[in-house]
## 1
Amino acid sequence: MTDGHDYRDPHDVAVLVQALRRRTTRPWTLMEVCGGQTHAIVRFGLDNLWPAELTLIHGPGCPVCVTPIGYIDAALALAARPEVILGSFGDMLRVPGTRQDLLAARAMGADVRVLYSPLHALELARREPTRQVVFFAVGFETTAPASALAVRQAQLEGLRNFSLLVAHVRVPPALRAILAAPGNRVQGFLAAGHVCTVMGYHEYEPLARAARVPIVVTGFEPVDILQGVLACVGQLEDGRAEVENQYARCVRRVGNTTAQALLEEVFEVVPRDWRGLGVIAESGLGLRAAYADYDALQRFGWEPGQGLEHSACRSGAVLTGQLRPNECPAFGTGCTPEAPLGAPMVSSEGACAAYYRYRRPLPVDAEPA
Ligand code: SF4
């Protein structure tokens, strides 16, 4: 979001880099939570600008990437039913399941469609009353309100041929799990600005206090990210652990209370399995009993299984920051955006896709672009 300011201004970037170099006196390890932030860091080479003492670990903030393979397999099973139209965001259709992805299922005759929102799926259900329209709903708290709105509207209209395969996840429990993991190195977080536009940042305050970690709500442009990192490092250098809001042009402490009320009405907090992180208590959203008719798993009597990653894919290690994407042996060879082995190479917010796009060593005989 812009307010007329140029958040890529080279002069501002240079000033912030200098400030960061002055402020950093010791090694610190931070995590940028959101895949959009990862892409900006890699795209603009920000990590080549800041001091060597500073390490940023790429976090699990790409919703397509963290959706576990068992849910992809469940979507494939639903799509195989002749009465079902299965829709989701474009990236989801290319994520490999245990045996194939949804695009391959479409090539074999399944009715799988790219849909831009659950409301688009609702519209399709109105137009196709003899078919069952299932929307594969992935995403953080940012996209969940649109799912909630679609379900509530379907109930109001008495639509019986619309349902959601719900894979929405919540960020704060994932941060708690990362901090509690054995060998955790994260000392501060850049929280995802867009999630906080919906949820605010008050729910991060107990976490910052209890775990003694600074959390800075941060946007997605170079100046945003450098300001977020500078604020986080400043707290660490001072021995503080607070929640700060760098993204004040979009985020209020309380967030969007209308969207939160909608989420509260339609969804309840449930445990959820994350690719790479496993099952995390209170980290998912599931439909409340009053809306259970719109739960595709219940409607079609299906339970997501474990699924099986490609044996060469190290996405779990990438998503938990144990491995840089270009350290994966399959990176750029066995695994490319055209033929991905795992979700982080598919998604437009995936860390592997970011490294492939911006950090791939060119063949020695390649002409510069
Ligand atoms: S480069 Fe490909 S195979 Fe390696 S972790 Fe990323 S998605 Fe998986």
## 2
Amino acid sequence: MNYFLTEEQQMIKDLAAQIAREKIAPIALEYDETGKFPWDIVEVMAKADLFRVFIPKEYDGLGGGIMEMALVVEELSKACGGISLAYAASGLGTIPIILFGSEEQKKKYLPGLCSGELIGCFAITEPDAASDVLSMKATAKKDGDSYILNGSKIWISNAQFADLALVYAYTNKEAGTKGMSAFVVELKNNPGIKTAPLDKMGTRSSPTGEIVFEDARIPASALLPPEGRGVPYVFECLNRTRVSCAAGGVGVAQACLDAATKYCNERKQFGQEIGQFQMNQDLIAQMTVEVEAARLLTYKAAWQKDQGQLGNTLETSMAKYFAGEVAQRASHATMKIYGSYGYSPEYPAARLYRDAVLYQIVEGTANIQKTIIAMDQLGYRKANK
Ligand SMILES: Cc1cc2nc3c(=O)[nH]c(=O)nc-3n(C[C@H](O)[C@H](O)[C@H](O)COP(=O)(O)OP(=O)(O)OC[C@H]3O[C@@H](n4cnc5c(N)ncnc54)[C@H](O)[C@@H]3O)c2cc1C
């Protein structure tokens, strides 16, 4: 299907699809089982320039935007939600540097993030501050040419392997929404920074962990300038990265549809393929329509961003919400179609089912997206500002 992508965007999508099909799909079950970080695949993705697609040309990138990032995430997610999440999380740590970093920070970090030599992550969530981002407790206190970071971040994708973390912390709690700041923090070789892995039910090949800052001294140059801009930065970044999260949901939902279609055409009961039964057709028809609708919402939000329509919070939340719901529904339908074999780790249905739930949680839960959408529709608070 032609989605009115540019020639270059279609090439990026095709290349990511090829890597997903040839290099990731064959080992997705193994990585899911072991929960290993896919270093080999990171190298393959780096060689294919996938980390460069959304980074400006002047810092060694290919100059694309949110659409390019979303296309890669969608294709990787078709093969493995975990590997796709690891790729996306590095990107989510990169976007704030592109948007708000100083020239020095961009020159220092973006080429390494392009080549895959540096892996990024973003650290917002804390044990007691998740949907309620502003209630975070992490602090950064200025001390001469340094800041002293204290606090704990949890559920951070890539935490234990990342070289850089985009960390949000209060530099002045009393100043409220004007007191939070953003920092690009080098995680390795700092005695005040410790990471620990977290186990999880799905997207298992993506490493998730905790990052603890205990009087961690970081240079003052780590601040994404100026001080006090953390709140607008966090929401402006989420407003972009939620599109790639939606694309991840679309990829997993498409993988469900592909697997369910294949199984419907292979499995026979009562002397015929199970795809001949109308109740299975009902599931296939619903999945087919919903996956396409989620994709179109996602591409629309990505396209708007890249056209400079940055106030499309409503469209972004619609894409993120719907793609998450569709991924979850498609994975449930696929489990039904696979019957007992859905329960087996040898088939993809169980992994897709566990992976799909993620897209209703990360980067703002389904409830948070619905709140944004409903508030806008009811006229209580316009999202598109
Ligand atoms: C695999 C994985 C990877 C992740 N990666 C990252 C990462 O890289 N970086 C990062 O910073 N975070 C990351 N997260 C954290 C994720 O973004 C948070 O888990 C998410 O924002 C939701 O927080 P919570 O699970 O603590 O839910 P809570 O905020 O505690 O909410 C619990 C429930 O209450 C609902 N709720 C809360 N407030 C409201 C409200 N006002 N109205 C209606 N309902 C509400 C929520 O929708 C949810 O259903 C990751 C999480 C997972 C599982």
## 3
Amino acid sequence: MTRITADVNFLRGYNQALVMAVGRTVGTFERSTVVQATGLTPQAVSKVIARLTVDGLIRPTGVRRPGVGKPAVVYELVPHSRYAIGAHVARRTLRLVLVDLAGSVQYSAVSPLPSDFTPQQLLDALASGITAMTGVNDVGGRLTGVGIGMIGPLDHAHGLVRGAHGLRHWHDVPLREIAEKHLGLPVHLDKDVTAGITAEAWRHGATFGDAALIMIESGIGGGFWLGGTAHRGAHTNAGEFGHTVVDLNGPRCVCGRHGCLEIVHNHAVEAGDVARAARVVAVGVVNLLQTLDLAHVVLAGADLLRHPETYLAAVADAVQADVRRTDWLTTKVTLSSLGADVIAAGAAMQVLDQHYGIPELAPI
Ligand SMILES: [Zn+2]
């Protein structure tokens, strides 16, 4: 009985998510638009539309009168019907954004974090930042939760920060649980880069293929979108792109090994050679393409955004020159359209996804 109820709930959530996805993508839609896009029956779509209208997530915006046949009600998503807060926790800063149901960033603020901050200091900064945000944005009753994108390594499944290089107070900290208690809101915790690639997937919609987000900011990481979903790996620790080795005789890295992409890159930056730093990243990206055959590479991060064109050109040139058969293997290289907000915005979108996105299939 429990299993049947669970399946019905899953199906209802799934159908609802399909309709919401159409609404986000096309602007205005009719019942027939959804039927065509999703393959659901007209009866099923009518039910979902009725429920979403009652909940205020979509609304009728007019009637289309075709030459032949019955008039059709036209609907649209109500962007301000639900919100989520996104937080990007970096080594020295906390960025908070407010994102609406359509995925638009309505508010963005950045504040400094104490050096080597403790979990309590982060919780206090989150609480005061959220109070400031909700003080100037009326979201009463429409807030779905808080998404946190944080530097790893971290265990997304259990909501644990496993220990970040350079932060001494963060070993096996159950951040999701303590933040939920402290903030009184549901919390979703993920790696910064995984949140970031989720934002890109939302922005690009259904056409987004296999992709990576390369972030250069207090370290170098990679977020992956593979087979239509975020790829977190067996231990939810995928993305340590900066700690792949590019020079066997290279300098010693914070992780203890020699010649990691991150340390080789940082040495070039410290020497003032941004062109070389960008080429180091480009080599790493080409290695990724050879391994994963990606359709899209997105570049992001505060340190990269200081020299966006240099990095973009270096990576695009390397992809062109080093990936054989570029007539056939085409990969798009772009900068993130969300700029410095990409991680925080993606963390907020992950919260909205949990409620109004395609539910992730639970293991049977
Ligand atoms: Zn390393």
